[in-house]
Amino acid sequence: MKKKLIKLFLSTFYLSAFTFGGGYVIVTLMKKKFVDELHWIDENEMLDLVAIAQSSPGAIAVNGSIVLGYKICGIPGVIVSVIGTILPPFIIISIVSFFYDLFAANPIIQALLEGMQAGVGAVIVSVVFDMMQGMLALKDPISIVIMVAAFIANYCFNMNVVYIVLLCALYGVLRTIYKTRRKAV
C-alpha cells in the first residue's frame, strides 16, 4: 500500500502541477492516468467521480482527488491525493505573488498564459467526447436522453448545473426506489 500511496501522491502532484484551465481539465487528465494508464478505476467509476466532484462544494480538482484517493487507498489515499493536488498551486501562487510586479508587466508571460487558455477548450472537448462515448457504450436509452437533456438545459437554456445535478440525483433515487419495489413484488 505504501508504494501505491507514493504513486498516488506523485500522480496527483504531477497532474496538478502541469494542468492549466481549471477542474474539468484535470478531470480529463485524471481519467487518462487512473482509468486508461494505471487501471485503478473503470469508466463508470470515473463518471461517478465527476458527478460527485461537480456536485460537491469546492474545487472540482480537490473534490475529485478526495473521491479518487478514498476509492484507491481509503483515508490515507484521501490525505495523500489532496496534498498532491493542492501543493502545486500553493507553490505556484506563492512564487507568482512574490514576483507579481515582474509577471504582471511581462508581455511574454501574458502571451504564454493566453496560449495556454486556447488549449483548454480542446482538452474540455476531448473529455466530453470520451465521457459521451462511455455513456453511449452502456446502450441505456434513458441515460442517453438524460445526457442530451442536461446538455440542452445547460447550453441552450443556461440552466445552473447545480439544478441539473439535483434533478438527475432525484431521478436516480426515484428510479432505484421503483426498481427495488418492483423486485419485491
Automatic annotation (TrEMBL):
Keywords for this protein: Cell membrane, Membrane, Transmembrane, Transmembrane helix
Chief location: membrane
Bilayer topology term: Multi-pass membrane protein
Transmembrane annotation, as ranges: 12-30, 77-102, 108-129, 161-178
GO MF terms held by the record: chromate transmembrane transporter activity
Compartments it resides in: Cell membrane
GO cellular component, one term: plasma membrane
Keyword Transcription regulation (UniProt): no
Family: Belongs to the chromate ion transporter (CHR) (TC 2.A.51) family.
Matching PANTHER family: CHROMATE TRANSPORT PROTEIN-RELATED (PTHR43663), CHROMATE TRANSPORTER (PTHR43663:SF1)
Protein name: Chromate transporter
Organism listed in the record: Candidatus Fimiplasma intestinipullorum
